[in-house]
Amino acid sequence: MAKTVTVQPSYESPLLKANHSPNQKLLKCNKKNDFPEDLFGKLPDEILVSIVSLLILKEAARTSVLSRRWRYLWTFTTGSLDFDDSLLLWLMEYRKVIKSYSEESDRFVRWVNEVLKLHRGPTIDEFKVCFSVNEKHFKLDIENWIRFSLRKKVKRLVLDLAHTRESIRVIRQYTLTDQFLRSYHLDSLTTLCLNSVQVTGEVLEYVLSNCPFLEVLHVEATEFLVNLKPSGPLLKLKHLEIIHCFKLENFEISALNLVSFKYYGHVARILLGDVPNIVEASYSLAYACSLVTNCSQIPSYLFQVETLSLDLSLRLFEDTPRFPIFRNLRQLTLTLVASGVEPLRCCTSVLEASPFLHRFVVKLTYVDGPAGELKVLKVEHPHKFLSVFELRGFLGCTIDMELALYILSNAVSLQKIIIDTRDPYAEDMFWDERDPRLKEWGTARARELATRVPPWVELMLL
């Protein structure tokens, strides 16, 4: 059974500070009439606003019903204005909820505009929009949202305008230009996330040149990004993600403090200059497959990463990949097409090349047949440091059973094995589309596998 972990709050409540002791009651009885005395009412507005700012937007707005004094306190919040209706998009897309895209987009835009009209806080930490919004009808609204956030000295700006299959027929993505941005100061930004926002390399170069404190840059699903080469080193950038920008041809940066890099896309010329602090990397689609196919051309910075993720589900490899030695690698995630003997060959090869690996996660995107006769492969040099193995997409067929048995036989320090029968991409989505009958079969086979797990190894079935 999984261990229960208690997470302590990351901040000390202003109320606790005001009352000095966390055990002190917030409500005291009045000696004369025995009615509770409202200690909140004695707190200055500044403290109450700081409390409300710790809440998410919808919770903060609900405080308006507490009393007349609280009615408009939430409008002074300096925390997060989070307009995330992505769950509704998912319901419309995959659960076939009968809703009109145009009606829902109208409703969403009105909701955002009404909140911004009421907001009175001088600054905000975060402004986040997650919904499919058409530039054709709402361009002025989107630009007003950006103006509002920049005037409020926003630190984290997230524009996620990803479309649904219904809206894609009428959607036109918003285009962000440097001419628009030149009217505003960008020096407060520490995080910029753009999804389904058309943006060119020139615009991103302008942003990077004028955001001296930018630590996180995420760009996803734009067709305008072809070349990106900032004029100078990016001294503050720590996390960089370029996702599904399929027109990208050339990308070159230097970021001394870069910690993580994620690239999902076609093969492109990617040059990371001086990145001495990078410890995490993630690749998918054609670029990930090209790295494995041409192992001799793996960039040098990958040999210093501690966490690596490779999605190789785009193709099958005829020959076993020959990975170079990754001496710093501690955690590895592989996504593979489970066909033939490829998954086992690929896993054995990468494990031999990662002598100090602690955690190994394998995602199987397809299993090509029922279980047959199982063969347990033993290697000459066992994996001494591997302590956690996780297998997602498990259905109990020959491929995934042999992979699990290989780990049990060759990982001499194994402490925990996780068998997950859900779709391997379920963690990145709200749903699991896998056939329930397949999951039942996988669960039954996982119980059979449990009989082969030694008693000192913890087995978790999901």
Task: Write a compact overview of the structure shown.
This protein is of the alpha/beta class. 27% of the residues lie in helices and 20% in strands.
Describe the structure.
The structure is a single chain. The chain is α/β, with parallel strands linked by helices and 462 residues long. Helix 8 links the parallel strand 6 and strand 7. It is built from twelve helices and 19 strands. It is globular and about 65 Å long. 27% of the residues lie in helices and 20% in strands. The strands form three sheets. The chain has a 14-stranded parallel beta sheet with strand order 3-4-5-6-7-9-11-13-14-15-16-17-18-19.
Salient structural properties:
462 residues; alpha/beta; 14-stranded parallel sheet; 3-stranded parallel sheet; 19 strands; 27% helix; globular; disordered N terminus
Briefly note the structural class of the backbone: alpha/beta
Helix content: 25-40%
Major sheet attributes = 14 strands, parallel
Summed up, the helix count is 12
Strand order across the biggest sheet?
3-4-5-6-7-9-11-13-14-15-16-17-18-19
